[in-house]
Amino acid sequence: MNPELIEKVTKLIVEKLQSQNGLEGNTKVNRASHDSAVTFWDHTTSSKQESTFRPAPNVPGVKTEEGQGLIEFQRYAEPKPLEKIESASKKEEQRMEAIYPSSGVENPFNPEELKELISKTPARIGVGRAGLRPKTDTWLKFRFDHAAAVDAVYGNVNEELLKRLDLFKVSTMVNDKEVYIRRPDLGRKLSDEAKKTIREKCRKAPTVQIIVSDGLSSSAVEENCEDVYLSLLQSLTSLGLDTGTPFYIEKGRVAVMDDVGELLQPKVVVLLIGERPGLVSAESLSAYLCFKPRKGTIEADRMVISNIHKGGIPPVEAGAYLGTVIQKILKYEASGVSLVQKEN
Ligand code: B12
């Protein structure tokens, strides 16, 4: 997605989320937008397909009123001719078919119910079998997904992407992927060289420090990081929150943010990191957040927005949503369980 489009979509989402949460801060919200037809991924319940907002691939009909910086919500996309709508719905059908394939069971006892069950989960259910074995299709798909998972864990993030996002690279105490997998403790600590580089290059004590790490899926970073990152930056800018110097940590684990907290003393750390790949998606990214992470921070004080990928939370929406979560963390000066306790 192009940066201008991300900017428009992000602004729109942040304003809508803020007005829903009553967290308006110093951002202008267009009051007329409350009846907008735009719906969002519902983070409070399990997300339903129909309530998930997915940015359209073509440029949306979002208008910024010159000089006021306000956004019209009424029309999200230009009206399309009928044949375009039909081909779009066919594409959507094909996409859903790829995520929720139809049953492989021959002569099912209750085809409707089976279809309903399959539609509820991307897990491999109702795939049928050939004698005692899985069908060739099922087996090949399994091998393909397994290979994608292995590639995601062992792969390295494309240097071009890091350059494009202007992220310099540092390492943890691990250099080798095999060691990384067997020694999570070493992935939670920055190398001495990394500490030195971070001290030299980064602005100290920002409100928000963004870091990116491959974690357990380099594919997750390659597929989603750019959109999440740009929309997160945009969302923080519209909320008037300053960010430090972002960087990339190779072979990192979630708790590496504690070392970053010690070094740079930000109020909030956001870590965009690849999730352990499953056989449904090898490209799922998570954003872990913590208020003032330090050596000895307990796990309960971290929080996570997980499943950021094309079949889960759309990356641009996740970035915008993260901004509003950070705003809440700053308001209550707490994250994770402590935030929930303070909020209640
Ligand atoms: C592996 C895993 C675990 C492992 C972590 C073991 C380990 N040391 O690696 C175990 C089984 C311990 C675990 C426990 C929990 N998990 Co878990 N976990 C995952 C899983 C499958 C992968 C996470 C991953 O790849 N992380 C990235 C790698 C690089 O991180 P890491 O540094 O190696 O490991 C850290 C993180 O995994 C983190 N972590 C793991 N789960 C959770 C959950 C929360 C809320 C937080 C803040 C952190 C966290 O703790 C590890 C140690 O620092 C995800 C699924 C997913 N789609 O992401 C669910 C997931 C993140 N877990 C989840 C939950 C709910 C939990 C628990 C709260 C369950 C419970 N009721 O006790 C606990 C909380 C643990 C904690 N750290 O606070 C949910 C979070 C939902 C949400 N959006 O809030 C997820 C998304 C699963 C799901 N779909 O429901 N988890």
Protein traits:
two-stranded antiparallel sheet; binds cobalamin; 6-stranded mixed β-sheet; Rossmann fold; 12 helices; alpha/beta; 344 residues
Polypeptide structure, described:
Helix 1 packs across helix 9, helix 1 crosses helix 11 and helix 9 crosses helix 11. It is globular and about 65 Å long. The longest helix is centred in the middle third of the chain and has 21 residues. The strands form two sheets. The chain has a six-stranded mixed beta sheet with strand order 3-5-4-6-7-8, with helices on both faces. It is α/β, with parallel strands linked by helices and 344 residues long. It contains twelve helices and eight strands. The protein has a domain of 185 residues: Rossmann fold (3-Layer(aba) Sandwich). It binds cobalamin. Cobalamin binds next to strand 8. Its EC number is 4.3.1.7. It is found in: Bacterial microcompartment. Keywords: Bacterial microcompartment, Cobalamin, Cobalt, Lyase. Catalyzes the deamination of various vicinal amino-alcohols to oxo compounds. Allows this organism to utilize ethanolamine as the sole source of nitrogen and carbon in the presence of external vitamin B12.
